[in-house]
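Action item from last meeting closed. Structure (294 res):
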């Protein structure tokens, strides 16, 4: 055997598994999206009927996309801002830094099931800690039905995302802060620049590539949101109150597995994939354009 063939021989197990468990399912799902199939009977080729139905005859799909975007708008800016401020604060302290970093990062590695149980307990209408706290301070007179009203339900899901992902953003920003030359801060201090002015003139511009990366990953991850609302409203109707927290992936899951419409579910997934690509490209161009102006 030729020496040049040895690398390909060692790579072959990974390539075979990658083709079998990644590439083939994608191609096969794309093929299924053009069929009508319940998972057991024979597949019936329907052409673009599934995609036409997704974009023109399925109000639940567009409602799920709207819910997803709305929850993203309610959570992503706060995750970015809180993560940055927390990173700057921790970067400038020496005592107990590792402890606070660990505490803030723990929510990110906490299992989604535990997070769902915690927030269900906190925001329960009758015995929730949040309602008891608000009533004891006199801010409200009676408990708010956090998990029973559409807008409140979206707020709770957004709070879950903020609580879970702020620590991750903090860790990424801390890495970025460590790459900024300290000479810049020393020079700004010698020039009489205030801490706030230094933050806006030096820290934020130099962290712009990291911010762009986080925004893009937040958009991609947000459009794939599933665990948070599904686990929080696992005992209620699909999508929560009035389907207000029905996300695109939850709609795909319900369509595909709850009603056994695998062909249509595959079309929903690839339609969502197209939407993710569009939003990612738009966000990338917008953020890249803003950075080029600086």
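Sequence:
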């Amino acid at each position: 055997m030729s020496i040049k063939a040895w690398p390909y021989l060692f790579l072959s197990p990974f390539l075979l598994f990658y083709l079998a468990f990644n590439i083939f399912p994608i191609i096969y799902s794309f093929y299924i999206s053009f069929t009508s199939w319940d998972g057991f009977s024979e597949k019936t080729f329907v052409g673009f009927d599934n995609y036409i139905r997704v974009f023109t005859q399925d109000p639940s799909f567009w409602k799920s996309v709207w819910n997803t975007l709305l929850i993203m708008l309610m959570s992503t800016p706060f995750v970015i801002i809180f993560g940055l401020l927390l990173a700057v604060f921790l970067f400038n302290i020496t005592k107990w830094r590792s402890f606070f970093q660990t505490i803030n990062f723990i929510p990110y590695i906490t299992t989604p099931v535990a997070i769902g149980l915690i927030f269900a307990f906190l925001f329960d209408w009758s015995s929730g800690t949040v309602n008891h706290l608000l009533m004891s301070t006199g801010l409200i007179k009676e408990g708010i039905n956090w998990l029973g009203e559409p807008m409140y339900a979206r707020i709770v899901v957004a709070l879950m995302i903020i609580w879970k992902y702020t620590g991750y953003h903090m860790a990424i920003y801390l890495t970025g802060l460590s790459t900024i030359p300290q000479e810049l801060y020393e020079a700004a201090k010698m020039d009489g620049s205030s801490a706030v002015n230094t933050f806006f003139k030096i820290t934020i511009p130099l962290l712009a590539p990291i911010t762009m990366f986080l925004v893009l990953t937040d958009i991609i991850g947000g459009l794939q949101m599933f665990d948070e609302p599904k686990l929080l409203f696992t005992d209620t109707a699909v999508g929560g109150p009035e389907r207000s927290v029905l996300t695109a992936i939850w709609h795909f899951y319900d369509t595909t597995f709850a009603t056994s419409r695998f062909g249509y579910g595959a079309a929903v997934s690839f339609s969502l994939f197209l939407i993710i690509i569009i939003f990612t490209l738009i966000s990338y161009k917008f953020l890249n354009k803003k950075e080029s102006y600086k």
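Note appended to the action item: The two ends are 56 Å apart (CA to CA).
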